[in-house]
Structures are given as structure tokens and as C-alpha cells.
Amino acid sequence: MTSVTTSAATSAATEPLVSVDRLSVEFPAENGPVHAVRELSFTLSHGGALGIVGESGSGKSTAAYALLGLHHGTGARLGGSVRVAGQDVDAADEAALRRLRGGTAAMVFQDPLSSLDPYQAIGDQIAEVHRVHHRDASRRAARARAVEVLDRVGIPDAARRARSRPHEFSGGQRQRALIAMAVACEPRLLVADEPTTALDVTVQAQILALLRELREETGMGLVLVTHDLGVASGSVDELLVMKDGRAVEHGPVRTVLDAPREPYTRDLLAAVPRVAVRRAPAPVKRPDDSVKRPDDSVLIEAKDLRQEFGRGKRSVTAVDGISLSVRAGETVGVVGESGSGKTTLGRMLVRLLAPTSGELRYRGRDIGTLKERALRPFRSELQMVFQDPVSSLNPRRGIGESIADPLRAAGRLDDAAIVARVRDLLERVGLDPGAYHRYPHEFSGGQRQRVGIARALAPEPKLIVCDEPVSALDVTTQAQVVALLGELQRELGIALVFIAHDLAVVRQVSDRLVVMRHGRIVEEGPADDVYERPEHAYTRGLLAAVPRVEAVPTGV
């Protein structure tokens, strides 16, 4: 009996933590099955870290979900084999899967707000997970464990904050809370699906450092799914590149990034924006090209803008005395950490928010104090592209009707002219004009963002505020959307205010840069000057936190 037990233990120790052999995943669809993953094979050793990268629709998240059996009961058809810590995941019954999820393997999802119960305190949610896998633990012990792991992931005053609900946490804190929940039962494998996508560079660096520390302390393995090759570069040992559900390249991370064999991998790397690279000059236009020339006049000007939310002692100052101007045809980049006031400033510039105080002049006219009726003539000239096109598009209406809304509101065109204008806009942003009646869920993330851009262009605006328009997109789609905005700007002469947490992307589009912190501008100037000779310590810190694809030399 002893020899058999010893043999089993030795086998468990030598077997990889994760073993995926010829995994295939199909989803049923009206026009035939969708092959999301095809013949995928890889292994992960105990304590190892694997990055899975690729464009949207490459199958990387689908493959990651299979590690925890999350396709069970969805109607998906799976082939091949998935083993985690010796457990055959596909053959496991529901009881075995419950033991696997959270106990042996845990997952951190991309959007913590949708993964957390909005009505339940963060500490109670973590305690509940702990008790599921430790049935002999008392409620007091489970709550103590929740406070312990919240403190471990860097939540200040963890005992008090454990009683807070998700909406009372910042984006970075919610992601930390989700990681705390995942590691509460000390899993042997952590699967992180785009855990830093919506976070600013400093918080992103903190989350990645936290994952490294947890790996070193606990010896857990990590599977990191990301579209950001810079994030993968400094976080994993091996890299798996996926395209159309298949693995096209797999090897040590530095080998894949420094000497990629496959053209697809080289294309991904070429599309990565680099913070050290200057903005490419605009193509020289022939005199007969139909390009609107900007008149270089000040289009919109803000003086000492303030925005306060709440009243009395509970009021919060989101924007604190900002002054800036945007000229016709110019792109002004706005960067800063979450909570710096970037989005609030953008919403004030297009008058989705009325300033608490200060002046806002558009083409010389004070619009900061105008009521809605008086503002109506300016609405068509001031537009916004939102970060999340899913939540800004009506899921029950075809995208053509959503794009047509501002045209119908203006009341200057009949129905036939509106439809023709919408079809022209769809073609201009690189979409099929025949997609007029299709719904938002039928489009990819990058395509939905193009729909949002088309809607903003519909009323022929003079200024578009782009609020994190590419943060959730993979690098190739990101590059396409950025190129599209630049092309439209040159053709139409519109001004852009480009708000983003990705400093490398902002550099590729901006003429001038504004750096915000705590509602104030701490640095402003020509983009190249700010990037190459930053004067403020905060700006230098932001630039230092940008993840880089290239290897950093020792000592740097």
C-alpha cells in the first residue's frame, strides 16, 4: 500500500500543472458551428507562467475558460483533453468542478464590476468563497481570511474596507479585490483574463507586480490572457500566440518577442505603439486633394473650469480650475491616472456636464452656462466617442438607426437622405454599408467602436472628444482605429481631444499633451517635448510605468 501511495505522489509531482492536448471548442450558430479553438496543445509546469496573446476572436479567452470547465452547460462542443493538477476537466462532474474552481484553480475576469455582487460587501463575498472550500471554517474565520487577503493585495485599511461594496472601490481596487477572492483558497493555478485592460499605467504596473509577488510567495502557476504584448513581456515565462483558434507560435517569451518566426507574430509586434516613437508625419496631400484645411483658430477654450459633485462636506472636486484651449484641426491628448478628472473634463467640453464654475467658450460664445434649449444648436458640432461602445449603443436597435439618431434630431434631412448618409458613414469608417440593420452584438469590439465613430461623425462636428476609444481593443484593431481617426481628421479638419491611459497610443495621435492629476493640469506642452523632456515628477512616473515589449537592459 505504501509503495502505491508513493508512486501516485511521484506521478502527481511530475505531471504538469496544466496539460492541454488537441483542445477544440465549437459553438452552435445559425449558419453552422463556430470553431473558436482548433487542435490547441500546451503544458504549464508548477509555478510557471504562460501568456496567451492574439487579436480579438483568436480564441484565447475561450481556451482559458476551458481550464476551469466554464463551457460546461453552454451548448459548446469540446474535443481533446484538458487536465489541471491531474484532474480531467471535461470528464469532471459538477461536484468535482466546484472543488476545482476556487480550490485548485481560480480565475480573475476582465471586468471586476460585473464579476462582483453590487449588493454585497466585498469582504462577505470573499468569505463566502472561503467557506465553500473550507466547510469547517466558521463565519468569523472566513471574515478574518477575507481581511487577511485584502490586506495582502494592498487594500488599505482592509478591516474597514472589507465592509465596502464594489461601487465604493476604484477600478484598480476592484481588480485587487477580485484577485483577493481568487487567492483566498490558495489555488495552485490562477487564470487571469485581461486583468489590466481598463487600468491606467501605474495601477497596471501595481497589479502585475502583485501577481509576480503572489507567484513567488505561493508557487502558483499563472495563465495570463492579454492583448497587450508589453504586459506579457514582463509577466510570463512563455508566450503562446493564437490566431483563428490555433497556436501559431509558442516558446520562451523573449525568444518569441525578440526573434518571432511567424509573420503574424511580427505583424502583432509591429502594431504595438511605442512610447519612445514620435508621431508619424501626416501624408503630404496634393493641392487637388479634397482636404479641409484647419484655420488654426481657437475652437474651444476653457478658463478656470471646476466641476464638483455632491454638496457640503460630502462634495468631491473632480476638476479643479483647469484652463486650456483646442484649435481647429488639432489633437490634444489628455492623460492621467484613474480619478484624475480626464473624463469629467471631456464631458464638460462637449457640455454633457455643466461646469460648476469657470468659463467655457466655443468659437467665442460662452456655452458653459447655457440651458438645454439654447445649447441645442451646438450639439451637432460637439460630439463624443465613448470608451464602451456596447453600453452606448442600444442593443435592441440596428446600428444604422443609432447612427441616424443625431441626423433625425437635427431635422434637416428626410428619411431617404438619412439612410444614404448613414450608409456613406459606414463605408467611410470601414464597415459594410449593408450592415445598417445588424445589431451591436453581431459586431466585434473594434467594429462597434467604428460604429461609435460613425455616429459621432454623422452631424458633421467640429470637435470630437474620444474617451478611451481603444483601451479594450487588441493592438492591430487599436492601430486601425487610431489610423482611422487620423485619416478622418485630415479629411474633415475636425479637432480631437483624445483621452486615454495608454501613453504610447496618445503619443501616436497628439499634437499637444495635457497631463492631469487630482483634477488639475500638472504639465502641458507639445507632445514630443513632454514625452522626451518631462518636467514634472508625476509625468516621469507615468512614463516609467509604461510596459515595454523590448527587454529592459540590466541596471536600467
Topology of this structure?
Layout: H1 2-14, E1 18-27, E2 34-44, E3 49-53, H2 60-66, E4 77-84, E5 87-88, H3 94-104, E6 105-108, H4 112-115, H5 122-133, H6 139-152, H7 158-161, H8 171-183, E7 189-193, H9 201-218, E8 221-225, H10 229-233, E9 238-243, E10 246-252, H11 253-258, H12 263-271, E11 298-309, E12 316-327, E13 331-335, H13 342-349, E14 357-362, E15 365-366, H14 372-379, E16 382-385, H15 389-392, H16 399-410, H17 415-428, H18 445-457, E17 463-467, H19 475-492, E18 495-499, H20 503-509, E19 512-517, E20 520-526, H21 527-532, H22 537-544
Parallel strand pairs: 3-8, 3-9, 6-7, 7-8, 13-18, 13-19, 16-17, 17-18
Antiparallel strand pairs: 1-2, 1-4, 4-5, 9-10, 11-12, 11-14, 14-15, 19-20
Helix pairs in contact: 5-6, 5-8, 6-8, 12-19, 16-17, 16-18, 17-18, 18-19
Briefly characterize the structure.
With 556 residues, the protein is of the alpha/beta class.
Number of H- or I-type helical stretches: 22
* Residue-averaged pLDDT: 87
Strand order, largest beta sheet: 6-7-8-3-9-10
Termini Cα gap? 56 Å
Question: Which term fits the overall shape?
Answer: globular
Q: Tally the beta strands.
A: 20
Q: Compute the gyration radius: what is it? A: 25 Å
Derived structural class: alpha/beta
Q: Give the biggest beta sheet.
A: 6 strands, mixed
Strand residue percentage: 15-25%
Runs with pLDDT <50, length 5+? 1-12, 284-294
Structure description:
The structure is a single chain. This protein has 556 residues and is α/β, with parallel strands linked by helices. Helices cover 38% and strands 23% of the residues. The protein has a 6-stranded mixed β-sheet with strand order 6-7-8-3-9-10, sandwiched between helices. It has a 6-stranded mixed β-sheet with strand order 16-17-18-13-19-20, with helices on both faces. The chain has a 4-stranded antiparallel β-sheet with strand order 2-1-4-5, with helices on one face. The longest helix is centred in the middle third of the chain and has 18 residues, at 201-218.
